[in-house]
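Deliverable D5.2: sample structural annotation.
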Amino acid sequence: MRILIGGCQQEISTFNPIPCEYEFFDYLRGDEIRATHDGADSQIGGAMAELEAAFGDDLELVFTFDAEGTAAGPLLHSAFLRIADEFLDSLKPHAGKIHGVYFSLHGAMATTELLDPEGYLLEEARKILGDEIPIVITMDLHGILTAKMLENINGLASFHTYPHVDFADTGRRAARFLTRILKDGVKPIAARVRVPAIVRGNELITEKGAFGAQIRHAKKLHENPDVLSAGFFICNPFTDAPELSSQAYVFTDGNQQLAEENAFKMANDFWSNRHIMQGQFISLEAAVSKGAAMAGSIAFTDAADAPSSGSSGDSNAIISEMIRVDYPHSILAPIADPAAAAKAHELGVGATFKMGVGGAHDPQFEPLVLDWTVESLTDGTFKCETWKYEPKIGPTAVLKSGNLTLVVTTETVMLVDRALFFKVGLDPKHFHSTVVKSPHCEPAFFDDWVEANFNVDAPGATSANLKSLGHTICPRPIYPLEQDTEFNPIAEVFSRV
């Protein structure tokens, strides 16, 4: 049994003004994929383990091409075409020589010219590999599942957790789906129901939020042998695209009624909770005022500048307000500013200089001009606490001005935990206030020990204040952009049988 494995993953924010380039991706080719993912807590790692368990010595895994990009602004179309050519060219030598395919995708990509690049890759892959070869994919639950994707795959599995912790498990579920096609001859049929709502906020946390009900229903469905896969996409509201929506999906072994009934149930239950599945904010001014009067420690969540969601990471909105009002406590904050990092490395530890920091990429942020002292310098290499990946963020500096300590990176970096702070020898617990540029970190990282975590209504490309973003492409009406949006559920059915 020869099964081909490849991937292409990225999440973008349409509202990030800085386009993504080819160099923003990490690339694995051939057996580099095996070496990187074997035993790893990743979708590909989980799929490999499950396929090896299912087929044993009868299995030959064929590794092709895997591109994994950091969340960013829209991908330059020229860069995507280069990636797509590599992805598709890697498939061609194996046409007619494989029995099945697994691809690891995200689902919230977009280029400067193409709004469904994953659909394009799957459509072209199908042309190369043929109609009879089963293709099963994994996706992030923030992906935007499109008709073109569904028309060109036999099955999918998506994350069941937010914050995401089930990477390998999702890969294993996809591999089990593919195994059932190859071993048992199941005939997948899918139903999806799109919900005209985009959502954000604490109620999406699957362990304790209202959205967890849809995920628990989907997981329960997997106990039925006729159900091959089920899940729910809450999409990425920052990727403005023609099929942007929340949506339920169910794959069954030929049982259309079972698929439709359960997709309807999840979609209707989700719709009834749409009002609470929105960001709950505190104004920037109120958050800073309240924090100033508290004993601490305080987290200031700046989800509007969350690089993990596709922002540029260069917002100084919160710290600028703190400086404006002469905030009385110690402050720790991350920021991407290549010029400031370069200046610090040029001058060296202990040097002082005056410079504007912030707004290096997004022009809506005015640089914050202060006198800075270079506290420390590093090369920027570290491993994340939770996702265990090693980002490439370039020369990094710790700058201090009065009670403000900034960790200044050359490249934008996903800030899903505290690893960046630890890398430069700083512990948020030793500061009164920390700016957290992620919509939701795991509770142990901040929530479990801070006095308060303010979800600040700050400006930015990934603001949870969804009305502020400026969608122009997604279907309308859509809640909450239009409060009076109606929901008339329709089941769309897909099958390659």
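Annotation notes: The mean pLDDT is 95. Residues 167-184 form the longest helix (18 residues).
The annotation will be released with the project's public dataset once the embargo ends.
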